[in-house]
Specification:
- The protein is α+β, with helices and mostly antiparallel strands.
- It has 4 helices and 9 strands, in the order E-H-E-E-H-E-E-E-H-E-H-E-E.
- The chain is globular.
- About 30% of the residues are buried.
Amino acid sequence: MSVEITRATSADTTLLRNLYPLYLHDLTSFYDFYEINEQGVFQPDYLDFWLSERSDTHKLVIRIDGRPAGFALIGQAPFPYMSPERDFQMAEFFVLRKFRRRGVGRAAALAILDMFRGRWEITEVRANAPAITFWRNVIGAFTGGKFEEIEIDGNPTQVFSSVEPQAAR
């Protein structure tokens, strides 16, 4: 199974529009922020923000053997929704359920962290214990355990650097 990370292009817009509601649906298990409107669309919907041509965001598609498997949306300083002393924020990260617990998320996350060198923050919703465990493990492996965990708005947030040589993965 080959995990590939590519920058989303305009050709990936429909793919992201189709995957994004699946991601929001998963989040509703842990978070009451998103609701379905009368047309069955999750609100609030921030996808148009992400799909706009902004210099402070990165849209990535995760593929397995060439087939779509998920996405990552990354903010880069001066991204308005992250701590000012950081270079990057993993704002949204999603892997389709059929690929979870098979190493796909870990491989994708490690590849993405390798792509963007600098000071990172990754925040999870407090109630999402699987995400917290996942990110602690991935970041621990990536940094050789050299990360700090703080709280931002009551949610666990890992802060670390991807500039220094990384532990063997």
